[in-house]
Amino acid sequence: MSLQPWPGRKQAGSLPPTEGGDLPQGAGYVLVVDDDPTIRRMVTSYFSDNNLPARCASSRQEMTRYLSGARPGLIILDLRLGSDDGLDILRDIRARSDVPIIIITGHRPDEIDRVVGLELGADDYLTKPFGLRELLARARAVLRRQELGRAAREKDPERGGYRFMGWQLERRARRLTDPDGEVVTLTKGEFALLLAFLEAPKRPLTREQLLQATRVHEDIFDRSIDVQVLRLRRKLEADLTAPRVIRTERGVGYVFTPDVLPF
User: Fold this and answer.
1) Per-residue model confidence as pLDDT tens digits over 101-111
2) In terms of pTM, does the model score above 0.85?
3) Which of 7, 27, 45, 212 could form a disulfide with 12 if both were Cys (CB 3.0 to 4.6 A apart)?
């Protein structure tokens, strides 16, 4: 893992790596999985300095011991983990847990690791090199999304909906209203696509993930997911030449950028 210098870091030692508390209640701790002892120490120290309890593992075996005990609230996984295959580790975690995962990828031109990682269930990614402040911000964002999703799942899944940028989507009525209160008609495919974005805001979603989400509601095997996104953009975006709601993530897919509030 490669790190950039970061400004304004507090002096290490104010909190030990396993203490602190900026996670949602009951969420556990952040588990940093990396084979570099310097990186493990820097990340866990920085996180605990900023009130996120953190622990570390240097290998798949050590990580497994943590997962067999108290569940972490978030895993930060370097895909280049010595002799261990990070994608295999990710696949194994996802087979038995829905714990949020941020993967750390290299800067290969084909960007294959990040695409495969997201399709295997990673919640976010960072590409080397990066700064600790960005890692911390992404960790907090993933944890917030996880907590919002948990709260929403406790409600009747067919009740309520989502609000974003003055827009509102009602799940049961399948009704979308714009900031002026006007109803915007959605096809089944557009509703399913928008719902997929709203359930994972600020998270890069691959075309395959979006295609699977829309297939549940409408047969679009012979259509491009990019066409579906374009149709939805025409209803949401003020300027199609500079999209602000649904952003293209080069080499990956799309990201729904607004803050989303379930209700």
Assistant:
1) 999 887 665 57
2) no
3) 45
